[in-house]
C-alpha cells in the first residue's frame, strides 16, 4: 500500500536522516499512541533514504533480556557485512560486544568483570558506540529502536550513551514510543533525549489524509464514507484501515462499523474456530511472535494442526507472516486477546507454557530465561514457587552478565512477590530479598535496596537464621552513608549478626567482624575503642582462611583502625598489602582502593612518593571506568590541583566532580565537595568567600559540630571577623569533644583551631594545642582519603610556638614545615609557611619569596589589618580603613622592630642607639633608681604568681627571664660589698628609660590620630629591660 499523508513529519525525519548521512549524527524520537503510524513513518523514511537499517523492537513485560532491541539491530547490521567482516568490525571490542551478541564469543571470551560491574557496563556502552561508528564510517546507517515504552532501563541507558547528536559520525538513531504508556523513569530519560535531538509527535490524520487512506484501502467508492470514518476513528490510521477494509468487504457504514478497536479485534478473532481461538489465547500470553513447538505442547496439538490454525488466523487478518516467522498483526490484537482471558484459564496457560518452555530448553532449543521467569512467576499459585525462584535467578544472572542490574532486580522482585503471595518458606524470601537488594544497589538505587534489606532483616530474625542475618547485615553496611551521619542501626545489626556467629571461624564471621570494626571507627566515636580488637580478630580469622577476598576486607578494617593522627607510616604497609591481595584475588576495585589509600598515607607522612602512587591509582580508576570510580578520580584530581596551587583548575574540577557525584547518587559527594571548597576558600583568602564557606560548613556538618565550628573559626579569623572566630572557637572548646577525637579528621579541625587561637591571641589554648601538634609534627593533615591537603602539622606547631614566644621552637617547626611543603610541591602551603617565618625573622627574605610565589599562583597579597612604614622621613600609619602620616620619631623605629616579632622579648640594648659613652662618674643607681627596680621586682613577683596559678607556662617563662635580668642588673650596679658602681650614659638603665620614653611617645602620637590603634598598642606593648609586643587581639601588620 502506498504511503499516505504525514508530509511534514516525514520531511522532518528525512531531513534529520539526510543530515546524518552527510556526516552529522542525528537523534530523532517519534511518539504517539498505539497504531498511530510511528513504525510506518520510520519505515517510509528509511526506504526513501536508501540506507542500511538496524531495526530492533522492544518487547513488553520482561519478555526479552536487557538490551534486546540493541542486540537485534546490531546483529542485523553486522550480518549484512558477512561473518568474517563482522568480526573485523567488532575487532578488539568483541569480548564486550559478546554480552549482546553471544556469537561473537567465538572470537574472544566474554570479558570477566567480577567486582567491576559499573566499569564493565561503561566498557560495553563504549564498545557498542565504537562498533556503530566503524559501521557508519563505511556507509551511513540508521538504527531504529521501536516500542521504547517497553524498553528496559539498560536499553534506555545505552541509547542515552550512544545518541549524541551533532557528532561527526554518519549515524541516525531513531526511536519510537507510545507517549501515553511510559514509566516515570522512561519518561524522564526520553524527555532529556528529546531535548538533545528532534522530537516528532504524531497525532490523528486530518480529514483529507483519512480520505486518501480510505481510498487507498477500499478504492474510490469508499471515499464517500471517509468523513464518517474520520469521525469514528479520530484519524487513527490503524482504525481507519480496519474500518476501510470492512467497507471493501461490501458492508455499509451503518451496521458494519464497530465503535472501537477492541470490537475490531474481537470480531476478527470470532471468525476463527474454537481451536484457533485457543491457540491465539496461548500465543497472546507468550508474546507477539508464535513459537509453534511450544504452542503445540501447550494446546495439545500436533505441528500440522498448529500450522493450519495459524493459516486461518492469517487469512482472518489476526496474524501476519513474513520471512522471519508468524506474528500478531498488531499489538492491539495481542493486548485485547490477553486482556479477555479469564483468570483461571490465564493461570493454567502460564503453567503449561512454563512446562513447555522448560521442555524446549531441555531439548537445546532457544529459550529466553526472562520468558521462563515471567511465566513461572505467574504460575506460582498452581505450580508452586520452585520454578519461579529457579528461573528468576537464571534470568537475573543473565542480566547481571549484561550489566543490566535494574532488570536483574525486577526478575527477583517478581519472583519474590509471587512467592510471598502464596505464603511460601521464609528462608527463600530472605534469600531473594538479599539478592534483590544487591541488584538494586548496583543499579544505583540505594533507597530501594535498603527497603528490601530491612524486610529481609526482619524475616531472617523471625526465622532465627544467623547466617542469613549476617548476609543481610553486610548488604546494609555496603550501601554506605553520608559522612558524619550516625549509623547506630547498621552497627547494631552487624553486632548482633557477628555475635550469633562468634566462634564459627567462617569467612562470614570474619567479614562481619571487619565490617563492624570499620563502622565503629568511622561513625560511632563513643565506641571507637572496640574497633582495634575487632580488626585484630577479623585479621586473625582471615589468615586462617584460604580466601583472598575475605583477607582483603579484613586488611581494610585494620587500615581504617590505624587511620588516626600520626600513624601514616604504619598504614602505608597495610595499604600496599591490600592492593597486592586484591590483585591476587582479581578484585580490581579493591586493588584501586589499596592504591588510593597508599597514596593518601604517603602524603600524610610528607613523602613526595605520594605522587607516583596517586598516578597509579588514577590510571587504575580510569581502567575501571565505572561512574563511581570516575567520580573518585575526578575528586582526587581536584585535590591535587588544590595542593599544587592550580586554583582555577581546582574550582572547575570540584564543580564537575560534584555534579557527577550527584548524578550517580554518591552518598558522600556533598561532604567531599564541602571539604574541597574549604581548601579553595582558604587558599584564595577572599573575605566574603571565607565567611560564606564558614557558614556553609556549620550548616553542612550538623553531625559533627566540634569539627564544623573549628573549621569555621579558622575561616572567620582569616576573613578578619575576629568576633565570629571567637564565638566559633568558644563553641568548640565548650563542646569538648575535640579532645577525644584522634581520627583522620583531627588535623583538619585542630588546624582550624590553631589558626583561630593564634590570631585571637588565645595563649592558654595555644599552650594546650602546641604539644599535641608538636608530637605529630612529622606528619601532615589530609582530609579523608586524599580529598584535601591541609598542611604540615609542623606549620601549626610553629605558628603556636611563635605566639607563645618560643622562638627557637617556632623556627624549628616552621623550617620543618617549609621543607615538607617544598618537597611535596604544596605551593599554597609553602606561601603560608614562608609568611609565618617572615613574621619571626623579617630580614631572612621569606616575605619576598612568599610574595613572588603567591604572585605566580595568582594568590592575593595578604590583607594587613595595620601598617607602619617609613617613606624617607615620613611614617605612614594605617589601621583598618583609616590612615595618617607622622614625622620623624625614633620611637616609631623601635615600635616597628617590636611589631615584626610579636610575642618575642627584645632587649633595650638591641633597640637603643647607644652613641658615645659619657665617662663622667656618677652612681649607676641612685636611690630613686634602686626603688624603681625594687617596685618592678615586686610587680614581677606578683605576675609570676598569677602565671603559675593559671598554669600559663609561656607567661611564667617570660616573667622569670625579666626577673633574672633585673636581679643581674641590680647586682652589677651594687658592686662588691654593696658599694654603688658608676657608669657613663651607655647603661642598661639609661637605655631602658630612653627606649620606654620613645615608645610611649610614639604610641601617644599614633593614638592622637588613630585612637583605636593607639588603644591596641597600649594593651599590647610592654616596656622594661626587655620590651615586647604581645597583642591579645592579634593583627596582621605591613611593616
From TrEMBL:
<feature type="coiled-coil region">
    <location>
        <begin position="930"/>
        <end position="957"/>
    </location>
</feature>
<dbReference type="InterPro" id="IPR041664">
    <property type="entry name" value="AAA_16"/>
</dbReference>
<dbReference type="GO" id="GO:0005524">
    <property type="term" value="F:ATP binding"/>
</dbReference>
<dbReference type="GO" id="GO:0005737">
    <property type="term" value="C:cytoplasm"/>
</dbReference>
<dbReference type="InterPro" id="IPR027417">
    <property type="entry name" value="P-loop_NTPase"/>
</dbReference>
<keyword id="KW-0067">ATP-binding</keyword>
<keyword id="KW-0547">Nucleotide-binding</keyword>
<dbReference type="GO" id="GO:0004016">
    <property type="term" value="F:adenylate cyclase activity"/>
</dbReference>
<keyword id="KW-0175">Coiled coil</keyword>
<dbReference type="Pfam" id="PF13191">
    <property type="entry name" value="AAA_16"/>
</dbReference>
<protein>
    <submittedName>
        <fullName>AAA ATPase-like protein</fullName>
    </submittedName>
</protein>
<feature type="domain" description="Orc1-like AAA ATPase">
    <location>
        <begin position="3"/>
        <end position="174"/>
    </location>
</feature>
